[in-house]
Amino acid sequence: QVQLVESGGDSVQAGGSLRLSCVVSGFTVRRGCMAWFRQAPGKAREGVASLATAVGSTYYTDSVKGRFTISQDNAKNTLYLQMNSLKPEDTAMYYCAAGSPFGLCTLQAPRFGSWGQGTQVTVSS
Fold it and tell me: What separation, in Å, do the N-terminal and C-terminal C-alpha atoms of the chain show?
């Protein structure tokens, strides 16, 4: 079975940085479409960043462009999300997702078949 385990969430002040990690088993990160989503209480799930790992192409939602970076470490079979210049509106539960490498690797939740349990990010002003 596929298992994704997120870590790195914390409470930080606005302007701070965090790096989220997603350790994956039962799925080869370098052969997939990987992504980070987030969800705040009372709001819909939002795609944050995706990565077609075999070719290195990325997509970011407009609100995080220039601040967040998605990457992978193939030797560790791990996905990362580096978050800089954090804002209060970034506060949410962040989820790692894995899916098929076929087709467009964009932020459409139904294309991802495996999800982690989430890690909480809280940004205070």
Answer: 40
